[in-house]
Design a protein that fits this description.
NAD(P)-bd_dom_sf; seven-stranded parallel beta sheet; two-stranded parallel sheet; 42% helix; Rossmann fold; NAD(P)-bd_dom; Ergot_Alk_Oxidoreductase; alpha/beta
Length: 292
């Protein structure tokens, strides 16, 4: 059986590839940059060029594929092509936003609500496209990923400091390995067909606590230097990278929101695996070289 992993060089995709290869499966890794991907993936994995924006690259990637891990925002045409080529199961890397109830007024700002609605619609569109093929499907919906903390890596490497607003902003960040573990199980067993799983970290941690976890992994003190929202806006604005005022509006509103955490912790990972989710402390130890 050939299993396809799209977005295979991404933070979650490469964990999915490793999990499947470690289980002795025949894995095909689809990526826009095969040369780079080969340096990130286990030996023996077939790496092929494939680009969602270039349909002419799909046929070679999909030939003989029975099950596929689908990267976020894959076009419906790709899923249709996969089904026509014989793919009989899709595991969709979605997001918790796909299940967000946008019709409920929960006190969030208009900018944040617009962002969540766009995220919901984009991810749910891919889920529905997978379902419409008639193939088996599982949707894996992670909450906020701990990999977002890599945005702090440059400052930590430079002078052991994190500069951000709202030190008490808290979320139950999820380790990418937990997301991949559930995806691998959904690809290899029949126990998860037709399920949509929300995966989170074990408990909300504030930004200040997240910084402490990085410092503990390094064995050094890392400072949290609080910025005002306007200082953060000036420091983070980068139109060349798509970080404009519209993005900053919802991001700062998210951090300022003083209601319940955006994604409450779930027991899904523990229920499915029998183990507690990996903590931010574990994530920091796993990524300590990024901050060294």
């Amino acid at each position: 059986m050939t299993l396809l992993v799209t977005g295979a060089s991404g933070r979650i995709g490469r964990h999915v590839v490793r999990g499947l290869a470690g289980a002795g499966q025949r894995v095909r890794a689809m990526t826009r940059d095969p040369e780079t991907a080969r340096g990130l993936l286990p030996p023996g994995v077939e790496v092929v060029h494939g680009d969602f924006d270039r349909p002419e690259t799909w046929a070679a990637a999909l030939e003989g594929v029975e099950r596929a891990h689908v990267f976020p925002f894959a076009p419906a045409a790709f899923l249709d092509a996969a089904a026509r080529a014989g793919t009989r199961r899709f595991v969709v890397h979605s997001a918790v936003a796909a299940g967000w109830d946008g019709d409920r007024d929960d006190g969030r700002s208009p900018a944040l609500r617009r962002h969540l609605a766009a995220e919901r619609d984009g991810h749910r569109e891919v889920e529905l496209a997978a379902e419409a093929t008639g193939a088996e499907w599982t949707h894996v919906r992670p909450g906020l990923l701990a990999t977002g903390l890599l945005d702090w890596a440059e400052g930590v490497r430079a002078d052991r400091a994190v500069r951000a607003p709202y030190p008490e902003y808290a979320q139950a960040l999820v380790h990418e390995a937990d997301v991949a573990e559930i995806a691998v199980a959904a690809l290899l067993t029949d126990a998860h067909v037709g399920a949509a799983y929300t995966i989170t970290g074990p408990a909300p941690l504030t930004q200040r606590e997240q910084v402490r976890a990085i410092g503990a992994a390094l064995g050094e003190r890392v400072r949290f230097e609080e910025l005002t929202p306007e200082q953060a806006r000036q420091a983070w604005r980068d139109p060349d990278q798509g970080v404009d005022d519209a993005v900053l509006d919802w991001l700062l509103d998210l951090m300022a929101y003083d209601g319940p955490v955006l994604v409450p912790p779930t027991t899904t990972f523990q229920r499915l695996t029998g183990r507690a989710p990996r903590s931010v402390a574990q994530w920091a130890r796993d990524h300590v070289e990024d901050f060294r």
